[in-house]
Amino acid sequence: MIEDRDEVRDPAVHHAIDVRQFGAVGDGAADDTEAIQRSLRASGNSIFFPRGDYRITRSLHVDLAEHGRAAIRGAGATLVHSGSGPALHIRGSHQGTSDPASVSVTTHEREITPLIDGMDVLGDHPEADGIRLEMNLKSVISRTTLRGCRYGIHAVRRNRDLIIDACHIYNNSIGIYLDDVDLHQINIVGNHISHNAAGGIKVAGGAIRNIQVTGNDIEYNHKEGGSDIWFIAGERAIREGAIVGNTIQALSGSGGVNIRIEGFADKTPDKIGHLSITGNHIANQSDANIFIRHSRGIGIHGNTIKGAARNVVIEDSRAVACSENVFDDNPDYRAHQENISHVGSILLRRAHYCNVQGNILTRPFGGSQERGGAIEAYSGSFLNISGCTIVGPRWRGVWLEDVQDSIVTGCIIAPGEGVDSMLEGIAESGGSERNLITGNRVRPGQGDAIRLVSDTSVEQGNLTE
């Protein structure tokens, strides 16, 4: 019988089998693999781990179709995986969608909503993974810690309606890995995802729809070249999602990117998009805070952003909007670093039909004495740069190089904020032509307020004194 301890008084666990009933020891030394696997079979995949360290040497297989719905719970229990592969391999047979009509009788009766709750999974082998999900419907991973693993949570093949909430995903190679998976509807909510060297949340290939990353603390996931959030499209596309209300940051000087979104180059820019990046605090990756390549249909709105050479990079992309973001120093840090700015620039390279609107950039250091500035565009067309406030740029406010058919309007650009080195407010270069520069307030710096190179570009209605 289950002992009457505090850790098992939750009514939800009284119908689960205590793994100690089948011989698990939980002392961190004994091999508990066979005992736990027996308890899974005997309980119909409903087991409970009391306090202890349960060492296993190979994967625990949870076969939903054969043994029934899974409920794996712990209370102060660590599952120490000393072998390769996943500690817990949750495998169903679902091949449909989220449409109830596509769900088989077997999935309805024996597989729906596998639950992992209250566990601590520790990798103790170079190829140890935490939890692998395969062909599941409505999985829930909650209040669980995954640490020291190659992949903390690893979704493969086909999955639908996955929730990951209130977990600590810490010090793995990749924290959450959607690996060429056919997955619709995933909510990653309220987790702490940190120190995962090759990526915090990584999506590589697959067919992804409706991915929500909301209210997480995502930090320091860069040591082995990873990004805090990293979407890489394949032939089947990543679409329809939101990265909202997270704190996403690293240490200054660490290299890497906070949010990296990359399309499928051979099909560019049509394999990734309809994504929103909204209301986040994003900071302190040296290369870029947000990097977007080969993408279309992405909105970057209402974030606070700082601490990168290029704060936002948009390359080889179309229909991207970057609006109402605040790019600003932290005054608490500035007091100790008077000559350092934590605002770089917004960079558009080979971008078309994009809007950069209503952003505030204070003391941006982007560009160089020869070229570039706080907002810099290269080889683009039909760009709308409007309503931005740029105060104290090191070199220039807006730089257009080989840019055509674009507008810079309604911007305020001025030296100040402790920086008086601004050379120009708005400048064209190279083969720029047919641009409209209108209705801006530009206070002159050391050079021209506005400098155009093409007779086909128009400057009108600007206040430059």
**Beta-strand segment tally:** 45
Structural class: mainly beta
Number of helices, where a helix is a run of at least 4 consecutive DSSP H or I residues: 4
What is the distance, rounded to the nearest whole angstrom, between the alpha carbons of the first and last residues? 85 Å
- Rg over CA atoms, rounded to whole Å, is 26 Å
| Largest sheet report | 45 strands, parallel
Give a structural overview:
- With 465 residues, this protein is mostly beta strands.
- Helix content is 6%, strand content 48%.
- The chain is built from 4 helices and 45 strands.
- The chain has a 45-stranded parallel β-sheet that branches.
- Mean pLDDT is 90; it is low at 1-14.
Based on the model shown, name its key terms:
45-stranded parallel sheet; disordered N terminus; mainly beta; elongated; 4 helices; 465 residues
Short description:
With 465 residues, the protein is mainly β. It is built from 4 helices and 45 strands.
How are the elements arranged and paired?
Layout: E1 17-18, E2 27-31, H1 33-43, E3 46-49, E4 52-56, E5 60-63, H2 64-67, E6 71-81, E7 85-91, H3 105-111, E8 115-123, E9 128-137, E10 140-142, E11 145-147, E12 151-165, E13 168-170, E14 174-179, E15 182-189, E16 192-194, E17 199-204, E18 207-214, E19 217-219, E20 227-232, E21 238-244, E22 247-249, E23 257-262, E24 272-278, E25 281-283, E26 288-293, E27 296-301, E28 304-306, E29 310-315, E30 318-323, E31 326-327, H4 331-334, E32 346-349, E33 355-357, E34 360-362, E35 375-378, E36 384-386, E37 389-391, E38 396-401, E39 407-409, E40 412-414, E41 424-429, E42 436-438, E43 441-442, E44 450-451, E45 458-460
